[in-house]
Amino acid sequence: MKIFSRLYQQVMIWALHRHAPVYLSANSFIESIFWPIPVDVMLAPMTLAKPQRAWFYAALATFFSVLGAGFGYWLGYALWDPIVAPFITSMGYEEKIELAKAWFNEWGIWVIFIASFTPIPYKVFTVTAGMLSMAFLPFVLVSLVGRGLRFFLVAGLMKWGGVKMEAKLIRYIDILGWLCLIAAVVAYLLLRN
């Protein structure tokens, strides 16, 4: 079944859309607060589609992601009890917040860098940083460095790999897609208990 190759072709069409930078900016902003879709999912195909704009796209993603992180921080700081805590409870994320608190206690500011650079859900840490009243300026600076490194790395790899990498990706996209889907299901089944 060639579901993923068709989906990839559609994503590449969207990446060329004249409003794609606006969508990337919006996704970057809300992903830092609550959105589950990583910025890389838009950034990578947009950079492949227009490699000459790679650094612009990375800068856009970084700026709006850190702006969203600031908003997430504010939500945790000012609206934890009336809005955020009930939302966390309704989503069943209490354990994730407790884990984030424990990581803050153990690693301090470095946990923001780790969450901003890796696939760990950054949104959990932006809200938790506000709830814990972490110093705002260091939070923003570390977020800027971590998010910037991540997005410029993704854009750089896409720009560097270019047409050759895209050709290989297209060739194996369905196999990779199914393997990722199977891995996600297995991970869910193993971790749900």
Automatic annotation (TrEMBL):
Chain segments annotated as transmembrane: 54-75, 107-125, 137-157, 169-191
Pfam families documented for this protein: VTT_dom
Domain annotation VTT: ranges: 54-157
InterPro entries in the cross-refs: DedA_domain, VTT_dom
Keywords: Membrane, Transmembrane, Transmembrane helix
Keyword Membrane: yes
Superkingdom of the source species: Bacteria
Gene Ontology CC: one annotated term: plasma membrane
Protein name: VTT domain-containing protein
Lineage: Bacteria, Pseudomonadati, Pseudomonadota, Gammaproteobacteria, Aeromonadales
